[in-house]
Structure prediction request, 633 residues.
Amino acid sequence: MIPQRMIDEVRQGTDIIDIVSDYVKLNPSGRHYKALSPFTQEKTPSFIVSPDKQIYKCFSSGKGGNVFSFVMEMEKVTFPEAVELLAKRAGIDVSKYTDTAARQEEKREDSRHETLRWAARLFNTTLESDAGKKAYAYLSANRGLEAGTIRKFGLGYAPDSWDFLLNAAAKEKIPVEHLTELGLLTRHRLKESLYDTLRHRVIFPIMTIGGQVTGFGGRTLSSDPETPKYINSPESAIFEKSKLLYGMHAAKEAIRKQETAILVEGYMDVIALHQAGFSNAVASCGTSLTRYQAKILKRYTSRVLFLYDGDNAGKKSMFAGIDILLSEGLTPWVVMLPGAEDPDSFIRTRGKEEFENVLESEKSSFQDFQIRCYRDAGYMESPDLASKAVSAMTKSISLIADPVQKELYIEELSKKLDISRKTLTKVMASGGAEQRHPREPMSGKNEEAPAAPPVQNTPLSVSERTFLEALLESTFYGNEVLAFAASHDQMLRLSNHPAQAIFTHLVSRYRTISGDKEAHIDIAAEISSIELPQARDLALDILFRLPVSETSRPNPTETAQHARRCLSHFLIAVKTIVLEPLQKEKAALLSKLSGTPEKSEEKTLFTRLHELNNQIRTMDQEVTGSINTILEA
Prediction:
């Protein structure tokens, strides 16, 4: 976990205008700066940056935040990675915030990454040397790869030798223990000697999103049927296949611009598609799609097009992958190539134009794909099997979080299967039917967790918005309002869930710094720390629209005036929020009494009305007294 002091130092040492200017051209616009959105294609600038508040808002995409969230969005990195990137840019030494063990592990990991880079360069150089002529001919003549494509993906060759890498490492003084840890050298159990793991193979460097080599895949050039066709680096802390997507470093920008990712099965499929101009293609590194990989895709797009082989294994993988994508908020689509073709062979034999035509004509929704597979497998021919198929399809729909989409998919399924919406909704709600089926195209283990129940919520009221506006603005001028809020948080309950999440977060943060009289909440920095996405968006929207002092450094008198104004607005909103539930209950009671209730009920209602009047009067006096005391101080 990154210490708060480190986050604060990086935040204070960074100017959002400088950072954003590295990505887009900013133009002054009053107190703000404007630019064309880096997230969408637009002709009229809707991307606004506030230097006063150190935040940004993109009105075309709805995205916004502070300097950390901007770097996270543009570089597709985690919050800790964004902090470290900004720290390096600002020249801030973050080692003082990490313990010795962590620093040593970081140096060790850097050294292992350097070893991987060295190996990748060696394999690539070998491919382009005399020793790699046959491998190069295989890639260019047999697989149709151009020189530029080979360079783009850093392809290489491991010669048919037991000690090629071992000897090269000795000359370059590369640590043998690193090569062993990374799986590039294997220890012979009987002879206690080391030998090259990858031999007589075309090498595919596997890279992180940022383009850092993290492992290798090797495709054999041997004709020996006993030799595995593909092998990958072994799993390690550096190389986790379930958390990597092959080609993502080269595809991320195209995925973002085209708003669709093409998901294929093999390395060569990715490379062939990129060479043909489909630069939004990635593969799941020889594993079935995982939730972690789905989360990576979600950073760039909401649409994924499956382009797997059409055999039983491919269908099984797509069935499992559909549920994983749906559970992560993505929309799956499917294309089934004709015959036994894969994307690589199809493009080589039939060309780019025909491939484009197939993509357009054969693309189907995940629901149509499921129905087609169940029908082809004979599931719709008998009631017992059809019931299982319907149960599985409604289970997929249940994973969709958006209620409108869920309703539309149920409506579509009802029309396509001629089953009433009521029945399908009931099946979906029960969720208890068997999910695994005996036939291969329908089987497969699902990874999804049950969808969380929706949080009860009410629209943001005027008093709640006034409350939050005053609370957020007050942080620019000190902790006085936060101190009052923290001491009265038990009596303050906001009915709007995101509003309550903002309030709870700020009170919690205030309590962590309340022992330090000099400390204050940096509200622009706090946005990234609010866990609930809707709460972050609400806080940003309010913060962006707040007025700021006309002077960049208000004097103490102006600061006190601004603070007092915020406090006054806040306390008035507090009074409304505290009394509002009681007033609503009173109005409901009066409505019931006006409807001539039974005498026994009338007596109960009058008793409760009397109690409410006393509560309202007492609460009003207490809150008004607190307000007057604070304002007179």
